[in-house]
């Protein structure tokens, strides 16, 4: 039950609907007992040919129970389902609030298919928690205890047998089957996650699989995953049917035991035979309330495992980018400075340091290029500046403030960011540019497109999901156009023109430098051309800063940067 503690808290937020559901559920159960008890008594009484007014009153009572049962059952369904949907909504919101700060680094721990299975499938599974796990035992106990109390006026022995039936069908049998269900439910969840992962991989990599003629291999893996999932579902279904059959069998045994004991007590003169039919009808009806307990183990384990898998995602994960209690409110329209002192960083689960003792200073209003070979830590350094990750050791400061006091979203709100991979949503060019900020006019968007040499684009041109109809260079230029439209005074650019031709790149950089003339600009690039205008160039290799200075200073040093420049000349000239 520990795994479901936070789910119970969310359930208890809907106290009014829960109380009404339980009250109406109890009323529906007890009126059903009253309906069948009075019908059994009516049958026995009618056999003795009583006065007609006696039968008339009993028939009226019978009808009253029938109407009452219908009305309270409707109310019970209304409030219990309303509570369920509200609880499910609260659960989705609560889980999203927990998982949202963990993006995007959470994708390093979970594959997207498995994460999707948890967010969608496991959350949906918890809709059964209130209706199938939390609510039925409460109603069952209330109806049974009320019925047992009523029967005790006729015979304490019959009441004891009924109480034993309550313990067996309500607790002992479900608890026994819950133990066996736990391992089975775990396998079903894992197989569903595996299937979702394989499906996602197939869709994402379909084109490459076709090109390399490996689609059959992947389809076989998908079929195997589907077969395993279906097999586990079949075993789960068989187990659920067996649980239900055993529970029904035990309820019938208890009903037979009540009938046999009632007949014996009648013969012994300790129980009036007129009430024997009523006793049988009560036993058959009251155990209808125990029927949901037959599937209780299945739904309990399903809910417990779903909550556990969701907790695995959000619990124990460091929330990156959230400022300390002493939050700094970043001023708008300011060109900030950065400083890193002895910064170390490694990605979660890796032993190798990605950044090893980095020391850099980026003055306000300066233009800095960070260069180096692939894997040298350039992009990681920029992601630390964006607070996408936290440093393992060392200090990062923004102006006079420590990064611990800077909120991630506040930082992003004052920055123009272009990453290596930029997402484009299904829609139009206008809709994707409008992400930059509110209130943009069409004229401003057209001007931004012109600045990045996308004059041929119309604002109404379609953009497919993930920008599938755009080339690599068009995606990068569209991302730069968004940054230009944002027009903040901090520019953080990660390989913004790696897929753009040299002529277009030079024209775009001219516009960028013009727009960021008084701003702080950090450019990560593996290209060494066009860096002459930079105030400083930071050269990285194997996670360390090996050189830093202006273009002319680095050339005169004839160190690592000079060698890289000479190699670039020999390749491209």
In short:
This protein has 573 residues and is α/β, with parallel strands linked by helices.
- CATH fold field value of the largest domain: ABC transporter transmembrane region fold
Question: Order of strands in the sheet with the most strands?
Answer: 6-9-10-3-11-12
Could you give the order of the helices and strands? HHHHHHHHHHEEEHEEHEEHHEHEHEEEHH
- The proportion of residues forming helix, as a percent range, comes to 55-70%
Structural class: alpha/beta
- What shape does the CA trace take? elongated
Assembly context of the chains: single chain
Q: Architecture of the largest domain in CATH? A: Up-down Bundle
Task: Give a verbal description of the structure.
- The structure is a single chain.
- The protein has 573 residues and is of the alpha/beta class.
- It folds into 2 domains: 2-314, ABC transporter type 1, transmembrane domain (ABC transporter transmembrane region fold), CATH 1.20.1560; 338-415 and 488-572, 3-Layer(aba) Sandwich (Rossmann fold), CATH 3.40.50.300.
- 60% of the residues lie in helices and 10% in strands.
- It has 18 helices and 12 strands.
- The strands form 3 sheets. It has a 6-stranded mixed β-sheet. A 4-stranded antiparallel β-sheet has the order 2-1-4-5, covered by helices on one side.
- α6 (156-204) packs across α10 (296-314).
- The two termini are 69 Å apart.
- The mean pLDDT is 84.
């Amino acid at each position: 039950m520990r795994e479901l503690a936070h789910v119970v808290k969310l359930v208890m937020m809907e106290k009014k609907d829960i109380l009404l559901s339980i009250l109406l559920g109890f009323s529906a159960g007890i009126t059903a007992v009253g309906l069948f008890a009075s019908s059994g008594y009516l049958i026995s009484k009618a056999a003795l040919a009583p006065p007609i007014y006696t039968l008339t009153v009993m028939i009226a009572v019978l009808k009253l129970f029938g109407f009452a049962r219908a009305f309270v059952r409707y109310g019970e369904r209304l409030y219990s389902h309303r509570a369920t949907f509200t609880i499910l909504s609260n659960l989705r919101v609560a889980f999203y609030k927990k998982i949202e700060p963990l993006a995007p680094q959470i994708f390093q721990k979970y594959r997207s298919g498995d994460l999707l299975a948890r967010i969608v499938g496991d959350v949906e599974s918890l809709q059964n928690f209130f209706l199938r796990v939390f609510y039925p035992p409460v109603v069952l106990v209330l109806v049974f205890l009320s019925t047992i109390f009523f029967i005790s006026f006729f015979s304490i022995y019959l009441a004891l047998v009924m109480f034993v039936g309550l313990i067996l069908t309500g607790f002992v049998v479900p608890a026994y089957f819950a133990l066996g269900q736990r391992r089975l439910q775990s396998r079903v969840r894992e197989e569903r996650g595996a299937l979702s992962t394989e499906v996602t991989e197939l869709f994402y990599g379909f084109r490459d699989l076709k090109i390399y003629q490996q689609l059959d291999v992947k389809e076989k893996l998908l079929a195997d995953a589907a077969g395993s999932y279906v097999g586990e579902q079949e075993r789960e279904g068989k187990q659920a049917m067996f649980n239900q059959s055993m529970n029904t069998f035990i309820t019938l045994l208890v009903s037979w035991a009540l009938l046999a004991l009632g007949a014996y007590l009648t013969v012994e003169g300790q129980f009036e035979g007129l009430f024997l039919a009523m006793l049988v009808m009560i036993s058959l009806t009251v155990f209808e309330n125990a029927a949901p307990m037959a599937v209780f183990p299945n739904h309990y384990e399903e809910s417990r495992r779903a909550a556990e898998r969701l907790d695995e995602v959000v619990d124990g994960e460091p929330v990156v980018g959230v400022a300390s209690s002493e939050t700094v409110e970043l001023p708008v329209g300011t060109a900030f400075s950065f400083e890193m002192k002895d910064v170390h960083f490694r990605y979660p689960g890796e032993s190798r340091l990605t950044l090893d003792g980095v020391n850099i200073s980026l003055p306000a209003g300066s233009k800095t290029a960070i260069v180096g070979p692939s894997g040298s830590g350039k992009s990681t350094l920029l992601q630390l500046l964006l607070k996408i990750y936290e440093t393992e050791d060392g200090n990062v400061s923004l102006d006079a403030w420590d990064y611990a006091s800077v909120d991630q979203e506040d930082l992003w709100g004052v920055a123009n960011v272009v990453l290596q991979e930029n997402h484009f949503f299904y829609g139009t060019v206008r809709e994707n540019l409008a992400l930059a900020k509110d209130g943009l006019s069409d004229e401003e968007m057209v001007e931004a497109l012109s600045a990045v040499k996308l004059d041929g684009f119309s604002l109404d041109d379609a953009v497919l999901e993930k920008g599938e109809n755009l080339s690599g260079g068009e995606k990068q230029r569209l991302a730069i156009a968004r940054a230009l439209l944002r027009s903040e005074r901090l520019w953080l650019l990660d390989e913004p023109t790696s897929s753009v031709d040299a002529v277009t790149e030079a024209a775009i950089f001219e516009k960028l430098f013009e727009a960021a003339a008084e701003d702080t600009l950090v450019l990560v690039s593996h290209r060494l051309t066009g860096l002459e205008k930079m105030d400083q160039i930071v050269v990285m290799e194997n996670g360390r800063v090996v050189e830093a200075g202006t273009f002319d200073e680095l050339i005169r040093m004839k160190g690592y940067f000079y060698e890289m420049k000479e190699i670039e000349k020999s390749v491209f000239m």
